Amino acid sequence: MNRIFSIAQGISVPDGTTVYPFLNSKDETSGLPWSLLDGFSLSAGVVAPKSSSKIHIMPLVTQVTFVLEGTIEIWMKGSENPEPYKQVLTSRQAILTNPGAFFQLVNSSMAVCWLLYIVSPAYVFELSDENEVIYDDSIILNENWKELEAKNWLSANPCDVEKMREDRAVASARLAAQSRARS
After folding, report:
1. Which residues contact 153 (CB under 8 A, 6 or more apart)?
2. What residues contact 112, with CB distance under 8 A and at least 6 apart?
3. Domain assignment of residue 68, given as a range
4. Per-residue pLDDT, 117
5. Does a structural domain hold residue 58?
6. Are 172 and 38 in contact (CB under 8 A)?
7. Residue 152: which CATH number?
8. Has residue 32 been placed in a domain?
9. Which of 5, 96, 137, 140 has CA atoms 20 to 30 A from the CA of 11?
10. For 105, which DSSP code?
11. How sure is the predictor about 72, in pLDDT bands with cuts at 50, 70 and 90?
């Protein structure tokens, strides 16, 4: 399929940011054929000035966050880190987030920050007809960093990885069937 993929309509996602899935056939909002691409997905993202995402965990995927325009603080905490740490990225810089790491985007500037998310395997995201999230490869947390630390991190991680793999497989099968029905 030779085609130009463009950043078009964004969607507000549960972490509080806006995502533009432009080359992600596993995100039903992209409208692409399910089987187009399995190994990775591309989405653009916007973090508004003076705002942040909620802290979240992506247990099953690896993400590269690439700054297209602006500046962003990336807060992360992996299992090997005793506490969260901050990396500040500017245009044309990227950072890798491994599966299971706590992750947050913070835009402290007065300008919009445009990001490119490269996720492997392709990010799976499913919405109901009422725009309720049915499945999301991210687990969104409502706690802040201090509250998570007080919960002893591991107990704050609500993820049963095997259950999430099963849920991902079920969501993937549903989305594949919907894609075939649209064709």
Report:
1. 77, 102
2. 46, 47, 48, 49, 69, 70
3. 11-182
4. 96
5. yes
6. no
7. 2.60.120.10
8. yes
9. 96
10. E
11. very high
